Amino acid sequence: MLLLNFIVHMQNPMIWVIYHSFSSRVRADQRSTESRQMVELAVKEHKAEILALQQALKDQKLKTESLSDKLNDLEKKHTMLEMNARSLQQKLETERELKQRLLEEQAKLQQQMDLQKNHIFRLTQGLQEALDRADLLKTERSDLEYQLENMQVLYSHEKVKMEGTISQQTKLIDFLQAKMDQPSKKKKGLFGRRRDDPNQTSQIPLQYNELKVALEKEKARTAELEEALQKTRIELRSAREEAAHLKVAEHPVPSTPGTARQQIIMSALVRSPEHQPNAVSLLANPSSRRKESSAPEGEKCIHG
Fold first, then answer.
1. Averaging pLDDT over each range in 50-54, 150-154, 268-272, which range is the top one?
2. CA distances from 145 to 150, 208, 272 (A)
3. Which parts of this chain are annotated as the region Disordered (predicted)?
């Protein structure tokens, strides 16, 4: 290139000037093109940096929003924790008060337990007394059962005897009634007149009245025996019910004072003379009744 410039410069100065100006322009164009390319490259790089910064800004905004949300959540949690702390403090105070009340109640319950122990001891003694009374009632019940059996036997014999007596007396009454209904025989007197026998008419009503009175006595005696038998059955049933109550009392459930009073009243009623039957042979002592039980029943009926 230098050689070409030298040759051209040596041959024609004008051409050299033209060539020199042309080369300067070419160099200027090249520099301009290079500058423009550099500017474009710088602009591209600047745009790329702007885009990168915008993306970074977006990321920072997202991070900021996320951190703001987290901060809000943490503030809410902090508020809730403060509320929980106040609630726990109140609960702690309440538990302390409850603990104090429980200690006081424990002391009261300890006193009540001591009282209950004493009460249980007294109830145990009462239960033992009730068991003793139950044994006594069992003995009395066996005596009442024995009395009832004897009274039933006596009543059956008396009923048979009464039925036989009533049958005989009824037949006799029917016979006498028939005699009274028949026309009485009249005796002939003077002048061919008949006269009635006054002794015959007076004897028949007298015998009828005596039989009627005897029948009423038998009925009254039978009624007394039935009443005595009914009383004995009632007493026996009461004794059985009382024995059942005492069996229940043998369990852990203690007997109440009302039940104890009922037992005492029942025992007194059983032993009272006015509640005993009127059959004299059945109201003897148990030992004498057991001795009499060895005798034949026919003899008992005869004694009755």
1. 50-54
2. 9, 41, 17
3. 273-304
